[in-house]
Amino acid sequence: MAHIRPISPPLAEVAKHQLNEDATQVESHLKVIRSWLAELDLHTALIDDQFLIAFLRGCKFSLEKVKKKVLLFYQIRSDLPEVIQNRDPHDADVLKIIRMGVGIPLPKTEKPTDPKLFLIRVGCFQVSSCTFADIMKVGTMINDIVMREDDQMVICGMVIIIDLKGVTASHLMHFEVELLKKVAILNQDASPLRMQGIHILNPPPGAQTALNIFNGLLSEKNQHKRIYTHGRDLKSLHDHFPPSVLPKEYGGDLESIDTIAKQWENKLLDNRSYLIDMALMNAQPCTSPRAGGKNGTTSNAFGVEGSFRKLDFD
User: Fold this and answer.
1) How far is CA 174 from CA 79, 166, 210, 222, 255, in A?
2) Strand partners for 198
3) Average pLDDT over residues 74-102
4) How many angstroms separate the CA atoms of 42 and 205, rounded?
5) How far apart are the C-alpha atoms of 207 and 176, rounded to whole Å?
């Protein structure tokens, strides 16, 4: 029997009608994916049913798309050791970055089937203390936990609020293009979490260049999502999100961002063992021809060796 956390009736309705989830077929889908993973001889100790159901839901229960996304999940994490490795939340350097609170999932939505909100405060990235890869490391740690624990975000997707207040040229200097490209693949093509929209606050003068770079990193599918720019006007933001779902710094009724960030610090510390173990989720040589490469490695399963072409998922 599949070991999957029960979901609420409203989420079950969304999963059924929008993601093609059929409760009578879930267990057979899981068996197919598990058998396929065993053939590829990948690390599977951490791949439980809850992990796999996130990918099935993220791919609308297309088994072929799940296979592509899971392989890419392994591969891109192998190519980002500076982001995926050394992620112990007890480590002083990692904890310092966690406490910057650059990226924080917000706890509430107006309706239980709304996309969850993920707040990114770029200006909180302290460029003198860490690198962009360090910031992305903590972001990936948070995503690993969300993918495992937040059924609403997995089923309904997420809306990203990007606050550019305090962004300077120093921040932009840290955004290495090649690293950005790989991180974009990690967070879009290789993740079961679906982006439903982007809201940008406080764009500084001359921000259009940075926004153009950001738009260029979006997958073809995500380029068709709605992108809203609100300037410095919180009233415009409130036209989309009521105060009940926003922190008080954004005119909302929720607790402060520092309080929400502290809650996430505790959650990361509580999940220390899982986060460290997830660093083992990387590509290994595969003997099965179904892996797709000339020499049987997952690095060739995506086309030309060493390159990452865009994969389209529904």
Assistant:
1) 19, 15, 12, 24, 31
2) 160, 227
3) 95
4) 48
5) 17
- H-state helical runs in the chain: 9-19, 26-40, 49-58, 63-78, 81-84, 92-98, 132-149, 151-156, 169-173, 177-187, 208-217, 234-238, 257-270, 272-278
The pTM score is: 0.85
Specify the residue for token string 């994490």. 77
| pLDDT average, residue stretch 75-97 | 95
* pLDDT exceeds cutoff 70 at 105: yes
Find the mean pLDDT for residues 274-299.
Answer: 56
Cα dihedral across residues 7, 10, 13, 17: positive or negative: negative
| Relative orientation angle of helices 208-217 and 177-187, to the nearest 10 degrees | 50
Which residues touch 304 (CB under 8 Å, ≥6 apart)? none
CA geometry: angle 284, 289, 294, nearest 5 deg:
80
Give the per-residue SS3 of 237-267.
HHCCCCHHHCEHHHCCCECCHHHHHHHHHHH
Q: How many CA atoms lie within 13 A of 202 on its CB side?
A: 14
Which residues, including other chains, have CB under 8 Å from residue 206's CB and lie 6 or more apart? none
Beta bridge pairs of residue 231: 201
Here the tokens at position 250 are 């954004």
* Rounded-to-integer distance, Cα 239 and Cα 227, Å: 14
